[in-house]
Amino acid sequence: MDAMRIALTVADVDPRCTLFLDDNDRNIAAGKAMGLQTALVGKPLKSKGADYALENIHILKQAIPEIWFGGADVGDHKLIRTRGEINSIIAAAPPVGA
Question: Which Gene3D superfamilies does the entry mention (predicted)?
């Protein structure tokens, strides 16, 4: 969870507006504990803590269309960032040891 906390701090994002994808149930549970929106990849059924389940990453657009078309409201925030915003965050982030 420390790595997730560091990543969220460095990226300066609201966890409620951040989608975390992983194929491990424990990592999904950790992401949910951090307040992230979560998607379990590689399994047809959601596990405890997963907001979404994707059999494979190729169906992401169909399974979670709100991240592609205007964003999903989460309070007064949206679950979306533009490519420019993401590139700016990555460029400004200091290296973090894993």
Answer: HAD superfamily/HAD-like
- CA torsion angle 71 44 3 92 (round to 10): -30
Model confidence at 29: pLDDT above 60: yes
Bridge partners (DSSP) of residue 74 are: 77
CB-based burial label for 28 (10 Å; 0-12, 13-18, 19+):
buried
pTM of the model as a whole: 0.66
Q: Are 31 and 20 in contact (CB under 8 A)?
A: yes
Question: What is the rounded CA–CA span in Å between residue 49 and residue 46?
Answer: 8
pLDDT at residue 96 tops 90: no
Every domain of the chain and the residues it spans? 2-91
Could you tell me whether strands 19-22 and 37-41 are parallel, antiparallel, or unpaired per DSSP bridges? Answer: parallel
Task: Quote the mean pLDDT of the chain.
Answer: 79
